[in-house]
Amino acid sequence: MDTNNNQHKLCHINPDWCWLSRVKRIFKITDIMPDFLFRKIILISGLSILILTIMILVSLVTNSMLSIKTFGFKFFTARVWDPVFDQYGSFPFIAGTLLTSFLALIISVPFSLAISLYLGGEFIKEKSFFAGFLKNSIDLLSGIPSVVYGFFGLFLIVPIVRYIQMKFGVEPYGVGIFTASIVLAIMIIPFSASLGREVIEMVPAEIKEAGYSLGSTRFEVIRYIILPYCKSGIIAGVLLALGRAIGETMAVTMVVGNSNIMPSNIFSPANTMASVIANEFAEAIKELHFSSLIEIGVVLFFVTTVISISGKIIIRKFAIRT
Amino acid sequence: MESEVLKIENFSAGFGKCFVLKDINFSVQQNKITAIMGPSGCGKTTLIRCINRMHEFSPGAVYSGRILLHGEDIYSINPIIVRRKIGMVFQRPNPFPTMSIYDNVLSGFILNGIRLKKEEKDQIVFNALQKSGLWEEVKDNLHRRGTFLSGGQQQRLCIARALAMNPDILLLDEPTSSLDPKSTLLIEQLMEELKQSITILIVTHNIAQAARISDYVAFLYLGELIEFGPSKKIFTAPENKKTEEYLTGKFG
User: Fold this and answer.
1) Based on CB atoms within 10 Å of each CB, which residue in A105, A283, A309, B234 is the most buried?
2) How far apart are CA A7 and CA A5, in angstroms?
């Protein structure tokens, strides 16, 4: 204020200084204020995410306290889940989740790798119509709601699996772990494929050319240069997809068979952690039932956290220092 | 007494409808250094990329005419065989960042799926690194990644990588343009030694470098071969006025 007044007085002596003080005032309002506000907004948004995460964890843990106290560690190893007799062991669901997600991963990796290599520019010389079409349809696939995938699974995959089951001589339920894995695989392909495409596009043209100049074929360049270079990115994409597969609820619930018995083979109907919550949450009147379901939620929370952290560790470990 | 390794006949190349190279004719002599020089954008790099058929990776690449390697048109042979016979070193050093120095030298074999015994591998790595003058500097770090080396060392590693495949011709595309004077000098000395056993074709926009190392010079301007001949003659008494203007620094 003081300086402003002084400058204002100075304006009478020399009009040029008046212009200077006005410029300074303009800078104060339009330049410094937004910067200050912007910084605060960003800080608040960042903090709110942190608080939200902690709040989710706290509310999950407090609501599942009853089950944690009643069953202790046996909750994870017991194989019987029977709401009628108040017996809750989550092992069948942990097994169901792990089986469906890893099976889905095994099914999806070859496809997503092939798609990402194709779209990453290794097999298309110029931007072709087909490549653009494929790229858009992959984006479209990742936007389709989970329920729709569930219907797709029921109408198309279930009859096919039933046919396979009859050929193998297993009871032809149609629904079960294998069906859920196929539906999950289809759902996660767009994610790992688009992430893979991004890392493959980032391989420097120079090292690809160096490979070709040594007389190698396209396959050899992919095998010995592009894939080693993209290893960490591809693994990260796969882990991201795994995280999604583990948490996926709606589509899985529709095709997994919803049986609380320990699965005996990959065709048997089962339940995953997410699907059992979705199935029984509305009818969980007993306090212990309710809190056991929430404890499964806590497990899901930790499993996904562990996966995302290990993904970050892998990226850091394999990162190429150039 | 002198024999032709490579003969370029009525060769034109370009992208789509735009021809960057127009009707090039000259031949490369065995165990000599042939320099291709000219101002930026005159088609030097395109020409050298045509010689080991890297040009066709560019979108819309077209060409006409013939390039004969030992009398055989390289465009009638499988490009993979051509590239094994004609090694290439690029403008920017590009060792494979995922491989160790040892594997980088052997990368030509690894990439082509050729399996070698341990002793053979050691021998090839030793020979190639000796030839490229890098052995003394890296012999204790052979199994570390090549990316910690300096720019000049990386470029010599790239030369070693090309030499390991035992090519007939080594193409160098402005190999020293991203290097400091000391590394440049080392690589120039290296080329002098290498020409005992190999034919070298180098692209350069550095007139002094061409004068120092080359036996033959091709001067390209706007995609046309203006003059070709022994370096001594071109640098002392160029026939074409354009060449003289370029050499005296009037343009380029």
Assistant:
1) B234
2) 5
